[in-house]
Design goal:
Length: 277
């Protein structure tokens, strides 16, 4: 480690922080059960609701896709955005700050580990839900759908890094903010219904908040690609892909600047948050 270059140290830090989440993901079997079964119950409720309302069959697929994507949002909210605050409470944040690596590398490693965990859960929900409810996906544009998903993950986890610094600034309010953001995002991102329906019925200011959540346009684009001709999107998948790419760049840059600010406050002013310290 002493002879590592800056890039090598960065990469080793990423691997070191991703390792416990990747290999520890399946050690607590009760967590796996609840993280898969509970979202499936919520998803099934919407499926039965749409069937009772005699909605188009594609809506069942929309709900299952939304349930799978919800696992990523929950991972961002509880395992990324709140991470630095929890590490501060446990006394680990001081070790991160005085170590020769950067907070960006540490959070990136946590994000990669969390992405692995969430992908296992999301894939299980998608496969089980598809088999149980007989959903048929169109795979003719799978390459573009995969690209949309990957770009959306960059934007989403970039947002998670931004929120990690913001939550650290808020201090003890981080827990309440995490709770407050859970259900509203489900609504604003259109996880259980087409986003275009939301955009035509809510005030314009709310559509702005909906648009800056990467899950919103990611779901809208994926639904258009996997269920072609069965949904009216807010924008075309290509334009939504470009928006997601732009958000990813902006969020990563903002996260870098905020984390550098956190490191400066810790090392120069001996403070690990901006309030109540």
């Amino acid at each position: 480690m002493q002879n590592s270059t800056g890039i090598q140290l960065f990469l080793r830090s990423v691997i070191a922080r991703a390792y416990p989440r990747v290999f520890g993901a399946n050690r607590e079997l009760s967590w796996i059960f609840f993280e898969i079964v509970v979202p499936l119950i919520n998803t099934s409720a919407f499926v039965f609701l749409y069937r009772a309302l005699q909605a188009p069959p594609a809506y069942v697929g929309f709900v299952i896709l939304g349930g799978a994507m919800a696992t990523y949002w929950l991972n961002i909210l509880w395992m990324m955005a709140s991470q630095l605050y929890w590490d501060k409470q446990e006394g680990n944040l001081e070790l991160y700050v005085v170590s020769p690596t950067s907070l960006m590398a540490i959070l990136l490693g946590m994000g990669i580990g969390g992405l692995y965990m969430s992908t296992l859960r999301a894939a299980t929900i998608a496969v089980v839900g598809t088999l149980i409810f007989g959903v048929t996906l169109d795979g003719s544009q799978w390459a573009l759908a995969l690209l949309v998903f990957l770009v959306a993950m960059v934007a989403l986890y970039g947002l998670g890094m931004v929120l990690s610094s913001v939550f650290l600034m808020w201090g003890r309010e981080a827990w309440q903010v995490s709770l407050a953001l859970t259900e509203p995002v489900y609504f604003l991102s259109g996880m259980n219904f087409p986003l275009s329906k939301l955009f035509t019925t809510i005030p314009g200011i709310l559509t702005f908040f909906s648009a800056i959540i990467p899950v919103s346009f990611a779901l809208d684009a994926l639904r258009q690609l996997l269920f072609p001709g069965q949904i009216v999107g807010v924008l075309s998948p290509g334009i939504e892909l470009l928006i997601l790419a732009g958000m990813g760049i902006v969020f990563v840059i903002v996260a870098y600047l905020l984390l550098r600010r956190m490191e400066w406050l810790a090392k120069v002013e001996a403070r690990l948050s901006l309030r109540w310290q």
